[in-house]
Amino acid sequence: MSVADLSFNQVTKRFGKVVALDKFDLDVAPGEFVTFLGPSGSGKTTALNILAGFAAATEGDVRIGDRSVVNLPPEKRNVGMVFQSYSLFPHLTVFENVAFPLRLRGTRGAALTARVIAALEMVHLGDYAARMPSELSGGQRQRVAFARAVIFDPPVLLMDEPLSALDLKLREQMQLEIKRFHAQIGCTIIFVTHDQGEALTLSDRVAVMRDGQIAQVGSPQEIYDRPNSQYVAEFIGRTNLFRLNAGQGGTWTIDGLGVTMPPVRGANATNTLLSVRPEKIRPVDSDEAGQVSFDARLTQVIFQGDHVQYEAVSSGGSPLYFQDYRGPGTHLMKRGEQIRLGFDPGDAVPVARDVA
Amino acid sequence: MKFRQILWLFLPATLLLVAFIAAPSFDLFRASVFDPDFTTEHFERLINRSVYLDVMWRTIRVSLTVAVLCTLIGYPVAFFINLQPRRRQTLLLFLILIPMWMSILIRTYAWIVILGRDGLVNQMLAMLGLATEPMQMLYTSGAVLAAMVQILLPIQILTCYAAMTEIDFDLIRAARVLGARPRQALARVFLPLSLDGTLTGLVIVFMLSMGFFITPALLGGRQDTMIANLIEFQVQRLNWSFAAALGVVLLVLTVGMIVALRGAGKLLARRVLKGGL
User: Fold this and answer.
1) Where is the ABC transporter domain (chain A) (predicted)?
2) Which of A50, A121, A166, A294 could disulfide-pair with A170, CB 3.0 to 4.6 Å?
3) pTM of the entire structure?
4) Do A301 and A346 meet the contact criterion of CB atoms below 8 Å apart?
């Protein structure tokens, strides 16, 4: 088992006038699972391609372990990679696909066979060695691609939206398998996706990308609970964003809700919004201590089985939504009902407003 | 929709094939063995006279040489085009297609202008002082070969190119990142995946070469006579039955060689796919 740290150091990639990656900085610890999360064009794939050696950085340095790799061709970097469309060699059997990296490294005979079979068994495809890729289902191809990418024990594994071609159920199942493989193999994993749920499920840390830069990097809990910008707050999950107005004595009033907030750290009236996640807002009896509360009318009730999504308008005219997870003692409310809602000020996060 | 309900869609193609391929072929075969009563004399004459066997053997040999040369030249050209940016690919393919708009007759005459006693090549050689006497290039086997390769090359380039565009570039990237040097990625992934299309092109070029007539007639000497030239000669002398027998032989040789080439291609593919090159 081998594992390595890696780092991007002020990496810039320009395609003509377009800046795909802008002074990108990131340190990844050995064995860490880091996800590059962002919409298309945010630079996440460019960063991965520079790491794999498919694209050259215009400026900056990339290191894997203790060596700079910017001048190394892909085959010298010793990284494994799983591609979006699997990219299994269609003319080779499952066995030969998985054996491919080992053959190139000079492994032959019984040692080769043993390792290939072991890798196929790890991904539960021990009986499929003689099949052609075209005879496999999407999930099976994905697992072969994974076995092929890790069989030569690379210290770093790259995964480029590997699950995006699978249907939802299979995707969730594969997420759990990838998590299990990571625990088993222990190599450093860089995972690229535009699916925020996938990023939260899999990662030790998530780097939220925007316009070739990292908007925020942190653990899934950090970026969900403490987004640092409107962009991150809106990209990860759903949220309510309220405008703040300066009140007296350092307090704030929330536009549209007509309530007063205790002082919020790091907020100012010109560029700050207040982000409150829908699951943090709930119906309250009159004025509970420590809660910010306000009157609202329900405009939409969406029943989802394990939870209910409510849309509402505050008495001050602000639209908002919240979720009820149907714990013991809760009941389904009706559209048009007048209710009192509230949230804990500690669950409200000030975020920088997007300039655009 | 049921197969029987759409069966009539085959009708136009079937009628066309019966009218213009099956019926004439049958007629050809009939003419070769009825003169006017049943006889095998024309086939016996073909087999017993070494001059005819020589022509058959030469036709196969020249066609194979042309097919192999077109492949050796065409594959790298297709490879190069496939690596270019999209727009330049379109331009290059257009340039390759232009000669195919001209008739084979015109392209063959162009070679007379180039290779003749006072042709382009001899003028150049004289100008550079490399030759005092004009070189004899017309009416040689080399002239026939050069012209046939030039005429058929676009077909092989386009066939190879079509096969290459089907190859997902991520497969090459995958091979590289998994440890293959560029040459290894080429040999183990790109070449095997373009092999089938390349062999198809080779067979097409071979098939077309087998029936070549104008080019050997105009650019070659007696020693370059191919089966099609023999057929024309016999038709001129109104030996219909013997010409028909030659036609049957050409058909059988061509089909037989295609089957053999396909078989050899499959064997080669299996070897390449198993252990790499």
Assistant:
1) 6-236
2) A166
3) 0.85
4) no
